Amino acid sequence: MEQLSVNQIFRGLETGKPLIHQITNNVTINDCANATLAIGASPVMATSIEEVEAMAGLADALVINFGTITADMYESMVLAGKAANRKGIPVVFDPVGVGATPYRTQKAMDYMKKVKVDIVRGNGTEVYALIGGQANTRGVDAGELSLTHTELAKLAAEKLNAVIVISGKHDAISDGTRVAEIENGDIWLTAVTGTGCMTTSLIASCAGVSEDYFSAAVVGMGVMSLAGERARRKISDGEGIGTFKVKLMDEIFTMNETVWEREVILR
Amino acid sequence: MEQLSVNQIFRGLETGKPLIHQITNNVTINDCANATLAIGASPVMATSIEEVEAMAGLADALVINFGTITADMYESMVLAGKAANRKGIPVVFDPVGVGATPYRTQKAMDYMKKVKVDIVRGNGTEVYALIGGQANTRGVDAGELSLTHTELAKLAAEKLNAVIVISGKHDAISDGTRVAEIENGDIWLTAVTGTGCMTTSLIASCAGVSEDYFSAAVVGMGVMSLAGERARRKISDGEGIGTFKVKLMDEIFTMNETVWEREVILR
Amino acid sequence: MEQLSVNQIFRGLETGKPLIHQITNNVTINDCANATLAIGASPVMATSIEEVEAMAGLADALVINFGTITADMYESMVLAGKAANRKGIPVVFDPVGVGATPYRTQKAMDYMKKVKVDIVRGNGTEVYALIGGQANTRGVDAGELSLTHTELAKLAAEKLNAVIVISGKHDAISDGTRVAEIENGDIWLTAVTGTGCMTTSLIASCAGVSEDYFSAAVVGMGVMSLAGERARRKISDGEGIGTFKVKLMDEIFTMNETVWEREVILR
């Protein structure tokens, strides 16, 4: 694989403390803010239509997360997205639940037309729905499609002209040309709400300090999958997702370039 | 006591991973989602008026929680509730704070008229207010009434034609005919916000896999009270509600039928 | 320093369990509710315009937190604030992010005109913006001003006719006449989202049982800074902000007057 800017990103986070503006859902908003702090960036979660443009204008990256999308929040997301585009900061989109209801799918497609999205992170079904595929509404994973995650990431990257990250057993990242797979992770990452949303915040934090969005996506995704794996190893008998979530945050916080380079399994 | 479908519920959760649609408050929404995952169900927290009907149409149970009720949220709750009624999935209602302000009490009573509620879970005051009783607004527990929790549960079940669960030192569950009391629990469950809301999510998860709503209520309530008791036993000197909340989630996650049958004290 | 009513406040919390009505942001609302419980008070987080007046009428203190301020929430804050003023309970204001966008700054200044605020808690920049200062929007700390935090607290207290608390490396509290500095704390308190918001909830809890708002501010601020310091001491190698946040809540929960008097370093 081509050289990734791992070193530059970790150093950028250490020295730059990028400001990550996030318009996100009410379920995982606290975890997203803490994940952003844990990786060394600074979160701001303003959503009011009166100030999102001004706030995006101060930020180094913008996260748009559809988890609990409402009509009001959608308007704020469009304004903030356009402000981000004007300023030239990355817009990172998490199409939570897209494909599950027509409302979400339509709003997501509209959003991609109105705002230039630089990075999309979702699961297989969500990304598939975003490029017009029909998935089972209960959340069929892309594994049941005729495409692998990696093929889907590449196809979606071409269609949407963005870096695509598909989280899953193996994570797939593509910008349409380059492709990476991350083999780290742990099944318990699916047993805690918000690990996907947090990953999106981590990727945006990385993209806030690097114009190489493909590398930012690989580094941010790698941090989460590796942190999940490392947290799980520290779980004792009788412990469950309560302890796992605490240790996951610890692992993101203590992650550094050396650990990342040594333990992330890239293909 | 008549045979409870404990075995069928635990097996249903394991194999069915029911989808629990929850329109709930902003305070405990993350904990409710994680409690739902911990017991083996799948949470979706969509609240937007544009999609709640579609989402309820995909779900196996619906939770309506009044914690931070607003006029908009109320409208979504009515639409989702009617969709749930049409589909025949259980509606589980948590009348948080009902009795404290006239707004809440009136909205709760309206809600029970517009939507067929299958299970109600609250504390003594909330349930008492729901059947038209006047309680001290600062939250007098039903212990100060002339009724025991068990008598109140039975009376409310008859009046509201629903399974009633009253959480407290001892929990009382009734469908108007059958009555159960659970003697497990721990006082620290009242020192963490959201344990009531989480219990409602657990009960809905159980009702999502069993048409025997009385059993679902007993099993879900029992999981929380027993998990609280078990978590408290693992607390060391110098630890408090931070650690307790983590261990509570662990205990819900690791709970199984064997532990439940052995340690839940039912009367 | 003049006598502080530390003893009276701790005893008041133990016996009075004051009800703290909080209209706050969606990011840290759960942590604020749990911090309130941990110090021995009772939280209620109602925000709906239809009931905030009634709820404030039941409360012993009101928290107004601007973290995710919207136009609707602002209206509720004004209604609740006026109801609190009429009832004579303390209004504790957290001007989160004021100075960052013109919208926030203007709304905060408007708020101080419409409602009598008794205590303000913020960082240096926020308090500076509140008295009309121009700070760097990315959040310059008041250390870069020509004023110390203590001088700024005193000046703001005079200008705003309120007790002012400025959280920082050393915390500064003033009512315009009296001045206190707290030298406890830990840098990790800035690495977890919501520690400022939680401090505001703690201060309001103390003010809910004491008319000596200066003492309430010192006690509440001291609880957080000392809890942070004590939590950090219990962190092992490989642990990070996940574990720290859990232990922070434990320390607030287990804090008592003896520990406070022995370990809080006041000047």
Automatic annotation (TrEMBL), chains A, B, C:
GO term, biological process aspect, one: thiamine biosynthetic process
Residues given in the record as ATP binding sites: R121, S167
Chain residues that bind substrate: M45, G194
Catalysed conversion reaction: 5-(2-hydroxyethyl)-4-methylthiazole + ATP = 4-methyl-5-(2-phosphooxyethyl)-thiazole + ADP + H(+)
GO MF entry, a single one: magnesium ion binding
Listed cofactors: Mg(2+)
EC nos: 2.7.1.50
InterPro entries from the UniProt entry: Hyethyz_kinase, Ribokinase-like
CDD domains attached to this UniProt entry: THZ_kinase
Pfam families (UniProt xref): HK
Pathway(s) of this molecule: Cofactor biosynthesis; thiamine diphosphate biosynthesis; 4-methyl-5-(2-phosphoethyl)-thiazole from 5-(2-hydroxyethyl)-4-methylthiazole: step 1/1
Leading EC class: transferase
Keywords carried by this UniProt record: ATP-binding, Kinase, Magnesium, Metal-binding, Nucleotide-binding, Thiamine biosynthesis, Transferase
Role description: Catalyzes the phosphorylation of the hydroxyl group of 4-methyl-5-beta-hydroxyethylthiazole (THZ).
HAMAP family referenced in this protein's UniProt entry, alphabetically: Thz_kinase (MF_00228)
Family the UniProt entry places it in: Belongs to the Thz kinase family.
Protein name per the record: Hydroxyethylthiazole kinase
Species for this entry: Bacillus mesophilum
Protein encoded by which gene: thiM
